[in-house]
């Protein structure tokens, strides 16, 4: 499948057509949060067990960069139950397959910043899943440089979600750029753009669930 087929960044993609009418809203747990931040429209997946969920990024390091989180908010992997840990990484497995397919990727970065000293910026366990293609980070010095980006200001997930919160309160323009980082020309996306990606990814993940069952 082409990376542009149904991709919400394509000018032909719309969430207002008949496709949307066939998909009821996700049944999210009440008061779902990512750390201190409420999350709703950017969530594209909730596991069958209701123990894990996936959400899109405000400012992904590469196209398709998403987060998988446990529903229960704890900061460290060791604080998850066996059931939560199993469900979290099974969800990573399923979502990873979808991301490789829809973004025509040949590899993935799967990473956990487990604690503040490991670069964690939101005190809620989350797994970064990033589709990769050969040469996709050559402009930054090579593929491994994405780890430096993830640990640096441009990969600061907490700051990105604070930006969303400020958008909702009308304090900043949703096109305002982050001032720090060598990749600061990457603009944060609007909530509408994230909703489109979340809707599209949800439909693609559900296809893989059907195939697996």
From TrEMBL:
Coiled-coil annotated spans: none
Motif (Histidine triad motif): 124-128
Catalytic site: 126
Keywords: Hydrolase, Nucleotide-binding
A GO molecular-function descriptor: bis(5'-adenosyl)-triphosphatase activity
Pfam family, one: HIT
Protein name: Bis(5'-adenosyl)-triphosphatase
């Amino acid at each position: 499948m082409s990376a542009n087929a149904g991709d919400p960044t394509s000018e032909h993609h719309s969430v207002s057509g008949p496709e949307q009418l066939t998909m009821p809203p996700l049944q999210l747990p009440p008061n779902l949060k990512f750390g201190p931040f409420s999350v709703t429209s950017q969530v594209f997946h909730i596991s069958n067990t209701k123990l894990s969920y996936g959400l899109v990024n405000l400012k992904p390091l590469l196209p398709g960069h998403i987060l998988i989180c446990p529903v229960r908010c704890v900061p460290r992997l060791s604080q998850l139950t066996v059931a939560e840990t199993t469900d979290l990484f099974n969800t990573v497995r399923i979502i990873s397959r979808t991301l490789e397919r829809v973004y025509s990727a040949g590899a993935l970065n799967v990473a956990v910043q487990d604690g503040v000293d490991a670069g964690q910026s939101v005190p809620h366990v989350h797994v970064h899943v990033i589709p990769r293609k050969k040469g996709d980070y050559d402009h930054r010095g090579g593929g491994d440089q994405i780890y430096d980006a993830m640990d640096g200001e441009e990969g600061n997930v907490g700051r990105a979600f604070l930006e969303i919160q400020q958008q909702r309160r009308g304090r900043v323009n949703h096109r305002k750029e982050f001032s720090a980082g060598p990749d600061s020309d990457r603009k944060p996306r609007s909530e509408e753009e994230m909703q489109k990606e979340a809707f599209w990814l949800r439909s693609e993940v559900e296809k893989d669930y059907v195939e697996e069952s």
